[in-house]
Amino acid sequence: MKRKFRLFATIEREEAWLEKQLIEGHVLIKTDGYGTYTFSDDTPMGKIKRRDLGVGPNIQDYIIRIDCQTFKSNSEYEEYCSFLKEFGWTGIKSNKKSGKLYFIGKNSDTNELFSDVESRIQRDIRSRNELLTMNTSMLVLYFILFFDLRLILHPSRAFLTPHLFEMQGSLFVKAFLFELPFAILRLGVTFVPIILAIFLFYRLYLSQKAINQYKKQVSL
Q: How far apart are CA 169 and CA 52, in angstroms?
């Protein structure tokens, strides 16, 4: 089995990457929905995992689609997967709490998980709402726990050695170089919430942009 980690700004980009993996012979068999992907290999166990998903020897004949749904119970989730399986889509093991579901099926003009633009709009709206609720709350928590405005305004505070910048010569160089990795770590932790906020708003922007583009197609 091969494990990879990737983050994607949109569902379309994630689907395109997963299809590229299929072309290269890697079948997604498990994901946590947050960026960690496990793919089958050519070992006997890997081939068994592929067969469990209904994937034949010609891996390139298949596609992966992502849906965004939340379920009140496990039985409701299983019922939804059974419904889609009747149309040739097999659910891939994923973390339902992420709000993202992964399905694999035969690639054909008549076999598409989202057969019209309206259904794609609804999927992207659900994805955007999930971003707003879950990621925003996580971002607030990060700001509370790690954000320190004093370190951003005065980076020298990241160095905890008393009177460090009053030292001179080799004593200063040794003390500075010794503490530099720890100071970088403290500053890095402080900047994590800012980086996450930028990435979140970028994802929201692209998600809303995709929704608007689909709506234009409907109105034409």
A: 67
List pLDDT tens digits, range 91-115: 898 887 788 889 988 887 556 677 6
β-sheet with 90-94: strand ranges across: 2-5, 36-39, 28-31, 90-94, 100-106, 62-68
Predicted local confidence at residue 111, as pLDDT = 60
Where do we find the tokens 């891996």? 59
Question: CB count, 10 Å around CB of 24?
Answer: 10
Distance of alpha carbon 9 from alpha carbon 3, whole angstroms: 20
Tokens for 51, please give them.
């067969």
State which residues of the chain have pLDDT below 50.
none
d(CA 17, CA 214): 21
Q: pTM value?
A: 0.69
DSSP string for the chain:
-EEEE---SSHHHHHHHHHHHHHTT--EEEE-SSSEEEE--SSHHHHHHHHHTT--S-GGGEEEEEEE---SSHHHHHHHHHHHHTTT-EEEEE-GGGTEEEEEEE-BTTB-SS-SHHHHHHHHHHHHHHIIIIIHHHHHHHHHHH--HHHHH-GGGG--STTGGG--HHHHHHHHHHHHHHHHHHHHHHHHHHHHHHHHHHHHHHHHHHHHHHHHHHH-
Which residues are paired to 63 by β-bridges?
105
Q: Are 135 and 178 within 8 A, CB to CB? A: no
Any idea how long the chain is? 220
